[in-house]
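Researcher: Please predict.
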Amino acid sequence: MIKVSVNGELKELNEDLNIKEMIVELGYKKEGFAVAVNTTFIAIKTYEDTIIKEGDTIDILAPVQGG
């Protein structure tokens, strides 16, 4: 297990998860999230190639509708 910060909350995750797997493990159901790792936004096409590491700070931003 590794410890990371997700949206300001400390979480324990399995090791060697990529961003796509992490989103599922954290229980997010919808698609279309913007994800930043250590303040750098990650392109959706690289979610499967980007591995979460011990101590990472992750921000998951869901789309908001309004008007």
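Model: The chain has a mean pLDDT of 91.
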